[in-house]
Amino acid sequence: MAAKLISGLSLCRRFQPNRHPGLQGGLTARDRALQGNGASAMGDWQLIQLFLNGTPFGQTDPEFGHDIGFYAFDMPFVNWLLGWLFITIVVSFFGALIAHYIFGGIRLAGRGGQLAGPTRAQLAITVGLFVLLKAVDYFFDRYNLLLSDRDMPLFNGATYTDLNAVLPAKLILLFISLICAALFFGAVFRHNLQLPSIAIALLVLSSVLIGAAWPAVLQQFVVRPNANVRESVPIQRNIEATQQAYGLTTDKVKYIDYSGRTNATPAQVGADTATISNLRLLDPSKLSKTFTQLEQRKNFYGFPQQLNIDRYTVNNQVRDYVVAARELDSGALTGNQNNWINQHMVYTHGNGFVAAPANQVNSALDDATAGQGGYPNFTISDTSNKGDIPVDQPRTYYGRLIADYSIVGAAPGDAPREYDSDTDAITYAGKGGVPIGNLFNRLLFAMSYGEQNILFNGSINQNSKILFLRDPSDRVSQVAPWLTLDRDPYPAVVDGRIQWIVDGYTTLSSYPYAEQIGLGDATADTLPGVARLPNKIVSYLRNSVKATVDAYDGTVTLYAFEENDPVLQTWMKAFPGTVKPASAISPNLRAHFRYPQDQFEVQRALLTRYHVQNPTEFFSTVSFWNVPSDPTVLDNGQSPTPQPPYYVLAGLPGQQGASFQLTSPLVSLQRPFLAAYVSASSDPSSYGQITVLQLPTNTQTPGPQQAQNQFVSLPQVSQQLNLLKQNQTSIDYGNLLTLPVAGGLLYMEPIYIERANQESSFPQLARVLVSFGGKIGYDARLDVALSQVFGPAAAPQATPAPATVNPAPRAGAAPASGELRGAVSDINDALSRLRAAQQSGDFPGEGTALADLDKAIKRFQTANTPSPNH
Fold it and tell me: What pTM did the predictor assign?
């Protein structure tokens, strides 16, 4: 049966003009739709729901004038339906052929064999239906031309050849198919199939000459010699459609000419406090083991391999923090902890929210700290601590590391059994989980997990519940399987509770003229512990849904983030009430929304080409860019993996103060020089605004790879790194940040060291590298490295050891007044705070201390100035 289906599908497609090798670059649009959407029941129901609930886009395609919704929602369903109708007719034909042969309707004796009248009639009608369906197929295939990939990899969409050769050919073949179908239907009343056979031969010949040969001739002799002119209109359509489909229109992307100068005065750099004071020292992709070793507390707790960056307001100051939930790590249980009772009824949850300011460490790693510097300044909120980011409910029953089910709930009067601390046990009081107090539910879950203990354990009672499906992304995908989810859910403290925030995307694969891109390829990077997205081909992407999963009770809430997205509106009509409106998003929750990394990576890949607006320039590719490879990966292979984008709290040209952004540099096409800097804002007031700083094309600003080469080739740096390596330590380069500062671009990279070949070793910040305009700074302290590049005034000054200030009284002066003594005390206090801030790399603290010191010195000078009467 399977062979019949395959052969039938092949036969029904054999006359398709644009299946000719070398013309369409492979499969037709409907073939891709059938493979991508009709191959599974999941795809089938989604196609049907989109067709039944489709929402107009309010925009039309430039060729036929149909609303984009026709291509997004109707055409995939039509392609799917036609495919199954072809299969049905072909199977019916061969079934009838076999049945008539068995029952004598077909005789092979004689020169030509014989067909009984009923047999001839049924077969003629079946073939007529096939050819009639082929005519319908030709009609709708005209619209599939707008998804053509003939001119890939340059652009998607109907080309000059498609519009001027293939499109007319489809109309001609449509009419020929109608004539053929009529002749087959007429054969029911005639005694031979001569005319229908001639018509079929004509159809086959026409499909070869008109559908294949003519487009090939036009492409070879008309288009290729003048492709830059002939394809200018399709390219312009492709540019406009791609920018619209991926949110890259001029109202969302702001292009700024940026000088990228290589020299700046210390005063200019020092004035850029929005960026300089927030330079991020901690790399969340390097510190998982550091968090684990210093803040794990118990062997069964853990942190993800990739930590997260988020911002919080502490003491009226916004800072970016490296954050993580201290989760239960199901894979870390050992020994008798893996006993079924301990595994599923005792160790049930994590405990705490751990954060560290991203722009500081406890102290610089130098001889004065005896090897104890370079560690994060942790702030912890758990059941026994209330840190700078207080959490009312720090227990996490749902998280990324909790891979197994737990059974919670105790009968009245029973002692709690869930581990909470060495001295306390608790009983889960949340609303998560499914009751298993009755025998039927227990039997179902015992069968599902193949575990008889669920059925026979005596501690399971009427109040017991089973918690399962505990990964935040898995829970969201079960609630909204129509969403494509971001790879990196992150925890945030919102109104005292830990919430997992998951970004959800609505996608299409049939947006006319838009670039088709593989999500897996576009989002590939070097971040550890983040799974790669399936390489699903899309031509439309929106971050339309923000989802939250409560870490305590598992509640999933979907919020409409881009309410004007027609795809989201379609799904909301299909599943009313499942997505809350954007007005339901609280300000505290919105303050922790980040511009999603996967969406940004897709957009930056497209911006390397679609920042070009002129079709001729686009065709020449001279102004195209590349995403740089990650320079911190020593062996990046023959096909280097792109550098990931980084979250930073920094300023931008023309912007007041710092904003939380996702950033990435871009380099010239096949060249290592910097071409642009892309930043997407995550601040609520400007969320989603993309800024592209374009560097002059007549200059050569070093790109990330060149900056890394300058770092490691500097003799002072290479010698000290070699010394560190010889001291039984391994060197790990942190994220190389590219930041606009004082009209130029600053590179900053932390260097971590770790004891080599030690089971319990973990990274600590050892040195910081800074580069601007070819000048390099290298030190254990960021302010010193900055001073090496820009001069002493560029960063807060190092202060001598603050001896107590006791000014000697002038001859004949009166004893020190109370004002004078107060000023001296304030000077000493400010100096102490300044030294502490410098040791920890706390630039905002340094700025405050310097300001207080300046005020205290002025007060001291005023109080110490002699009166005119003296």
Answer: 0.85
